[in-house]
Specification:
264 residues; alpha/beta; TIM Barrel; two-stranded antiparallel ribbon; 12 helices; 10 strands; globular; binds ribose-5-phosphate
Amino acid sequence: MDWGMRNRLARVIKPQTGRTVMLAIDHGYFQGPTTGLEQPAGTISPLVPYADALMLTRGVLRTSVDPGADVPIVLRVSGGSSILKELSNEDITTSMEEAIRLNVAAVTLSIFVGAEHEKQTLVSLSKLVNEGERYGIPVLAVTAVGREMARDARYLGLACRIAAELGAHFVKTYYCEDFEQVVGGCPVPLVMAGGKKIEELEALKLSYNAIQEGASGVDMGRTIFQSEHPTAMIQAVRAVVHENAKPEEAFDLFNSLAGAKSGV
Ligand code: R5P
């Protein structure tokens, strides 16, 4: 890995802890105005100081993030399908030239292992890695889970390993039972995906387990920005990820920050 690639990766996965708290706000690329992201700028700006990186599309980056913000960008460069159609039918939508112009730290796309358009998405990953290697831009592969796909260690382990074998520099996947097997079979850093909004304590437990079982951080969206207290939640997640806080300790922090804000 050359210096530029390593430097960009270190902007996302912080060398001090070897971990990252990424904020995923790319949902609109296939699901339109997701709850909490109807007007992205207002949701994003209070969270930026606590995010190690933002994962988003060029459209939201251009319109809704201050170019003066000192936050690394992981740019989603795949798309082409919507929730109304077959989700796996994605292609690369944003060029590497554009990613460089936007000064991103990494690019990302989804792979749909086992889905109808599996090959198309795996070939897109491989092409993106070829371009990333040329310009020193790391590639994050997201293991998207199709509607009927089981989120178990066998399936997620397969998807993560394929992503790494095709050259992804880091991988995002869901937490599952025997998660350490997924981590163990993936030779590049792995970040845990969030998923639908769940209770804060549950989300902190999931994050804690993932970190203790070897994840290099989390990449969460709805669990943070759909919380009633998003800035408190992201700080609680940071405590788990960067300070090895126990879920209950982080939940206490969440409650005290949330209480302070609402004047309770
Ligand atoms: C997944 O493929 C996309 O990147 C999502 O838009 C994003 O990761 C979702 O984040 P969360 O599930 O934590 O809301």
